Amino acid sequence: MEIGHEDMSNTTMLWLWDPQERYVYQPDYSSFHVPGVAGPEEPIAPYVGLWEYQGENLWLRIREDATWEFVNDQDDVIEYGTLWVDENGVTLHFDGSGDTLQLDRTVSGDLIDSVNNGTLLPVEGIQSQEPYFARNGLEINAAVEMGTFLLEDGVCSYSGLGDGYNTDDCYWEIVKNGDYTHDGIRELLCDLHEAGRRLAITSSKNERLVRKTLAETGIDALFDAVVAAHDPKHVGKEHLVSSSLEALGCQAADAVMVGDRFYDIEGARANGVASLGVYLGNTAKPGELEHAGATACVSSVADMRRALLG
Questions:
Q1: Three-class SS of the chain
Q2: Residues in CB range of 157: below 8 A, 6 or more apart
Q3: Which of 36, 219, 277, 299 lies at a C-alpha separation of 20 to 30 Å from 261?
Q4: Is the pLDDT of residue 81 over 60?
Q5: What is the four-CA torsion angle of 145, 149, 155, 157, rounded to 10 degrees?
Q6: What's the CA gap between 200 and 222, in Å, rounded?
Q7: pLDDT tens sequence across 230-278
């Protein structure tokens, strides 16, 4: 069958009769011709399928009937038309504009777009290499306090309900799972540092983890020393408090140990250091710090500030 087009080009399509399959389309013997251009001498079969345009959010789909289309990562058709094949590769004819684009076949089987310095590789399916937010012009820019919020026409993904994203109204809730610096503690540490007080972290936790936590919370520069456990055989904080005094070059009479557990207070007492017991974060049981012998106890950051800075 031959089909003539308004631009004087024509498409030749061939079907052969098969007793079982009836009429079977023969892509190798079908073609598209443009006046003044030699007809195809090469079969279209090696080009049929999906081609990814490298570095672009673009795929070329070539069909057996000598038609083609450029699609994006959502499989939306951007351009389409017909094509013909020659010994060098394929030539795309754009329906509408009438423009053509030559894609040359390399020895390795790739297609080269010499006009736009592009390369197309055969692929099994559409899979964008560009992050979802970037290719859809979206930004992660919501800085909010704790609470529940409505995001109108937002991007949301619900676990268990699909692998992709939906764009719709969605709610989210901001909660605090870990609280390394209670409200006001960071400011208090800064003020102590500015006042010339030498500060040390005295922890029975692993030193690497302690330093990592300080760095993540952005308060590591406020401390003059980090004294943490190295030997798991040590029990209590007596040796750690002693090492902290040495690291700071401080006398016991000039120091204050701030702690929220009984072993902080006991470690201070063992070294003759005054202690401030702190009931924050629900770490110590009621009366625990007084029973351990704390010099004084507080239950708010404001009280800590008064005790340490006056």
A1: CEEECCCCCEEECCEEEECCCEEEECHHHCEEECCCCCCCCCCCHHHCEEEEECCCCEEEEECCCCEEEEECCCCCEEEEEEEEEECCEEEEEECCCCCEEEEEECCCCCEEECCCCEEEEEECCCCCCCCHHHHCCCCCCCCCCCEEEEEEEEEECCCCCCCCCEEEEEEEEECCCCCCCCCCHHHHHHHHHHCCCCCEEEEEEEHHHHHHHHHHHCCHHHCCEEEEECCCCCCCCHHHHHHHHHHHCCCHHHCEEEECCHHHHHHHHHCCCEEEEECCCCCCCCCHHHHHCCCEEECCHHHHHHHHHC
A2: 164, 165, 166
A3: 219
A4: yes
A5: 90
A6: 9
A7: 654 555 789 999 999 999 999 999 999 999 999 999 999 999 999 999 9
- Could you read off the pLDDT of 135-192 as tens digits, one per residue? 666 655 555 555 666 666 665 554 444 455 556 666 666 555 554 556 688 889 989 9
pLDDT, mean of residues 199-203: 93
Longest dimension (CA), the chain: 105
Whether residue 28 has pLDDT greater than 70 = no
Say what the pLDDT of residue 160 is.
Answer: 46
With 0.70 as the threshold, say if the pTM is over it.
no
Q: Which two three-digit tokens encode residue 43? A: 């079969």
- Whether residue 215 contacts residue 180, with contact meaning beta carbons closer than 8 Å, is answered with no
Residue 107 half-sphere exposure toward CB, CA atoms < 13 A: 0
Q: Which whole number is the average pLDDT over 62-84?
A: 91
Distance CA 13, CA 27 (A): 8
Where do we find the tokens 């073609």?
Answer: 31
